[in-house]
Specification:
Blueprint lengths: L1 H9 L4 H13 L2 H22 L6 H8 L8 H10 L5 H19 L9 H8 L15 H22 L17
Helix pairs in contact: 2-3, 3-5, 3-6, 3-8, 5-6
């Protein structure tokens, strides 16, 4: 039973499901919204990374992205995407802001929401909203939603428009390798 649930969670969300997730981010509690938003963006980062990997078997995929594996965490995906040049420093910063906000809501025992000064200040530090007209005057939830929308669109475009890199082929000593 648990393996069926895990397989379901690994499968791609339909466009309708993605629209429902966006609506959930706008309407659910700040704790729920931050977790859903980061899970959504996490899946985009995983997709961006796998686009540049060789074809992985299911076991290889799980050994890289599964629980307690090297790229299981949102933080690890951000670091590796940045290290490979798939995202820039500003995008990495903004993703880390979302990670910090999500972690605060997930682990914090204080009463807080998007209007909490520390949360709003972090969101205002995001580079991606600087071009949004009057972004400083947006409601805190709308500011959060704009950050999530812009970043997910940015990574989604990278995922669909950048050609996958071919694996590096080395002229090795042995013709039996690679």
């Amino acid at each position: 039973m648990a393996s069926k649930l895990k397989a379901f969670l690994r499968s791609q969300a339909s466009p309708t499901e993605r629209n429902l997730l966006a609506r959930e981010i706008l309407t659910t509690s700040p704790r729920g919204a931050s977790m859903v938003a980061v899970a959504f963006i996490d899946s985009f980062l995983r997709g961006l990374l796998t686009l540049h990997f060789v074809d992985l078997s299911k076991n290889d995929f799980v050994s890289i992205f599964g629980p307690e594996r090297p790229l299981a965490s949102f933080s690890a995906k951000i670091k590796i995407c940045h290290a490979f040049g798939l995202i820039g420093a500003k995008t990495a910063h903004d993703l880390n802001v979302l990670r910090e906000v999500r972690n605060a809501f997930a682990h914090g025992l204080r009463k807080m929401n998007f209007k909490t000064r520390e949360v709003r200040d972090l969101l205002l530090s995001c580079h991606c909203v600087k071009d949004v007209p009057h972004y400083k005057k947006l409601s805190s939830r709308k500011l959060f939603f704009e950050v999530v929308s812009i970043i997910s669109t940015h990574i989604g475009v990278k995922q669909t428009s950048s050609p996958a890199k071919a694996p590096i082929k080395l002229q090795g000593y042995s013709p039996f390798l690679d």
